[in-house]
Design brief:
- By secondary structure, this protein is α+β, with helices and mostly antiparallel strands.
- It has four helices and eleven strands, in the order E-E-H-E-E-E-E-E-E-H-E-E-H-E-H.
- Strands 1, 2, 3, 4, 5, 8, 9 and 10 form an eight-stranded mixed sheet that branches.
- A hairpin with a 2-residue loop joins strand 3 and strand 4.
- 35% of the residues are buried.
């Protein structure tokens, strides 16, 4: 289960990158190459990982983050290794009738069949750009468009929650404006058709509009740990 945190302000501070040496490094590389052989769509691109989360002031959360690559998450397969914790964004996309969009990850992704909100791991900035609230919001808007076809200005997204999982993962969640359910399905179907025409598999192979946490057990496959508590929050906020 994930802890739900609310904060008026969010401050992000970069700290030293994780260091993996010796046998652990060899085991990590071996596990990564095995994962790539099983799923060639995996790539060792840059990613920001969470180094810590604390409350800096009553209304401010401080997130420490480091630069790494997706290869480092292969440490999950190395016994006894210290595994970097994910830092991710997600978008709660409601319908006008109070339901919320939940997607299912496709077979080409790193988590086939997993149910989650649109979103993904945070990427570190390039050049002199900061990793701040504006960058997170832009990234959330990009993930929403890439996974569902719903293209909204980043300014339309409102940060609503931060989750802290038992495994240390930190998620920053944004609330999108309600849309008509037929329009959501229309945008997703258009995205799937466009990706298929390009010879690519969409990141979501299915979307479901969920009206209550009680419906989650009926969705086959693994669920991200934050799904139920955030959906419960959204059910109270959006469905009211």
């Amino acid at each position: 289960m994930a802890e739900l945190l609310e904060a008026g302000k969010l401050r992000l501070v970069e700290v030293a990158a994780p260091v993996v040496r010796g046998r652990t490094r060899v085991a990590m590389d071996r596990a990564w190459h095995e994962a790539v052989r099983a799923n060639p769509s995996l790539f060792d691109g840059p990613v920001a990982v969470c180094a810590g989360l604390s409350r800096e002031a009553p209304d401010t959360l401080l997130v420490s983050w480091s630069r790494a690559t997706y290869r480092y998450f292969a440490l999950r397969r190395v016994p006894g290794a210290t595994v970097p914790r994910s830092l991710f964004v997600s978008v709660v996309q409601p319908t006008e009738d109070g339901r919320v969009l939940v997607g299912r990850m496709s077979a080409s992704t790193a988590a086939p069949g997993r149910r989650q909100f649109p979103g993904g791991s945070v990427e570190p900035p390039t050049g002199d750009e900061p990793l701040d609230e504006h960058a997170l919001r832009r990234h959330a808007a990009v993930e929403l468009a890439e996974e569902t076809g719903i293209d909204l200005p980043a300014a339309d997204l409102t940060r609503c929650l931060v989750t802290h999982g038992e495994d240390g993962q930190v998620g920053v969640h944004y609330l999108a404006p309600p849309l008509p359910a037929p329009l959501i399905h229309e945008r997703f179907e258009a995205l799937v058709a466009a990706e298929t025409a390009r010879g690519r598999a969409p990141e979501f192979d299915r979307i479901t509009l969920v009206g209550s946490p009680a419906e989650l057990p009926g969705l086959a496959g693994p669920h991200v740990t934050y799904l139920e508590p955030v959906l419960r929050w959204a059910n109270r906020r959006v469905g009211s």
